[in-house]
Amino acid sequence: MGYDAVIEQVKSTPEEYLEEISNYISFIRYRSEKKNSEIDEFNSLCAESQKWAKSVGMTEADIQAAKKEWRAEKRRA
Predict the structure, then answer these.
(1) Three-class secondary structure of residue 73 per DSSP
(2) How far, in Å, CA of 9 to CA of 3, rounded?
(3) pLDDT reported for residue 51
(4) 10, 1 in Cβ contact below 8 A?
(5) How far is CA 71 from the centre of its chain?
(6) Could you read off the pLDDT of 53-65 as tens digits, one per residue?
(7) What distance in Å separates the CA atoms of residue 34 and residue 37, rounded to the nearest whole number?
(8) C-alpha to C-alpha distance for 23 and 49, rounded to whole angstroms
(9) What pTM does this model have?
């Protein structure tokens, strides 16, 4: 359903339901903004981690070895 169709439905909705519709729209907007915020935070943490790894001289091979060790520990647990 397109934007215009949704607007037409809202216009024809009885007034007693408008507050509930408004609450749904606010919730959807909030969830979308929160999701974007979480993605931005994740990307920031990834960049920070990469910067730290580079500063201490870690290589791709070191990271692969760490993943392998972590997975092995997880299997043993």
Answers:
(1) helix
(2) 10
(3) 92
(4) no
(5) 25
(6) 889 998 889 888 9
(7) 5
(8) 38
(9) 0.48
